Backbone:
């Protein structure tokens, strides 16, 4: 589980770094065009990295399971909900509510992700982890609250909520895909969503900025979106969507800290409160233990794995770990600490 926690926190750090840098680029691009360039940077950067890796080791054994034909239908819904519908709803909503209302409503992504994960996708959160998730979400809400004019019509508020719901669906569907290659998932999502948003931005009157701004946005997207999505997918595979979403809520605090040297902003009392809530929330999430006797049904699937207690099979020759291939799990019943990964989706 430690690998999942470190991946989730690293994903949050990388994504959080994009916020203050994006503020510097925003005046020259506008929100929709900037989002398009960030996603395209993720997709193009990961595509280039894949080509380089394939050229350096053309005959290497697969370390991750490749996307299959049936996966692309699920990936289509991932992109449609989180990469297309959610940004459009968000922009429509934020134009009709005040900044304070919009910022606070955007924090609904995490609780909606957790709600869907637990209610529909058979994930489990104990009381300790649930309390940790609530505290990290409260910390994020504390960061986004400001004593400002609070107004907005119901259509704008509803649109922002639908945007958060779209990202929550995206998160949970991506978790179902997380047994596949995270780089392939992030690369496809970045290219398709970025291309769609770029077309929408240009169709609605946006103009491409100077080449230096475009290249900067693409570079930020490669690092803060591309690598972040890859790490987030890996975390979902190990932890489940609910826990990954709770850890990812710490991203705004990373952005707030980086904004001090980059934008000349100052940390105030609200940042200290947010930090305290998030540290306590992460502590509760990390220290939660959940274990009981449970049954594994027979299962045949393909994903990256090590030879651990759930993967006991022979190979005709030595292999590197992790590695990916089609393998079968025999029925088993045992007890050990676990989270809602791909092998532990059972009722409680």
Residues:
């Amino acid at each position: 589980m430690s690998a999942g926690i470190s991946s989730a926190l690293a994903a949050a750090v990388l994504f959080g770094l994009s916020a203050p840098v994006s503020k510097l680029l925003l005046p020259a691009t506008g929100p929709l065009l900037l989002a398009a360039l960030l996603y395209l940077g993720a997709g193009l950067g990961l595509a280039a990295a894949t080509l380089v890796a394939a050229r350096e080791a053309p005959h290497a054994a697969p370390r991750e399971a490749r996307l299959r034909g049936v996966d692309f239908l699920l990936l289509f819904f991932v992109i449609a909900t989180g990469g297309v519908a959610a940004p459009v709803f968000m922009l429509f909503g934020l134009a009709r509510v005040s900044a304070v209302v919009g910022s606070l409503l955007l924090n609904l992504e995490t609780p909606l992700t957790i709600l869907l994960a637990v209610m529909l996708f058979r994930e489990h959160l104990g009381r300790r982890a649930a309390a940790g998730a609530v505290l990290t979400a409260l910390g994020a809400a504390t960061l986004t609250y400001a004593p400002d004019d609070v107004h907005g019509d119901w259509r704008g508020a509803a649109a922002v909520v639908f945007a958060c719901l779209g990202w929550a669906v995206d998160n949970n569907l991506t978790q179902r895909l997380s047994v596949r290659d995270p780089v392939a998932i992030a690369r496809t999502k970045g290219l398709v969503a970025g291309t769609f948003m770029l077309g929408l931005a240009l169709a609605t009157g946006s103009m491409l900025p100077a080449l230096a701004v475009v290249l900067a946005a693409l570079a930020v997207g490669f690092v803060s979106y591309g690598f972040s999505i890859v790490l987030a997918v890996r975390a979902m595979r190990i932890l489940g969507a609910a826990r990954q979403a709770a850890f990812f809520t710490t991203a705004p605090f990373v952005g707030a800290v980086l904004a001090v040297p980059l934008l000349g902003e100052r940390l105030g009392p609200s940042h200290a409160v947010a930090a305290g809530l998030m540290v306590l929330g992460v502590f509760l999430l990390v220290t939660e233990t959940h274990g009981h006797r449970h049954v594994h049904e027979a299962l045949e699937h393909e994903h990256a794995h090590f030879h651990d207690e759930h993967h006991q099979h022979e190979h005709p020759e030595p292999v590197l770990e992790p590695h990916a291939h089609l393998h079968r799990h025999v029925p088993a019943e045992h007890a050990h600490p676990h989270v809602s990964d791909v092998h532990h989706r059972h009722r409680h």
Q: What stands out?
A: The chain has two domains: 2-292, 296-337.
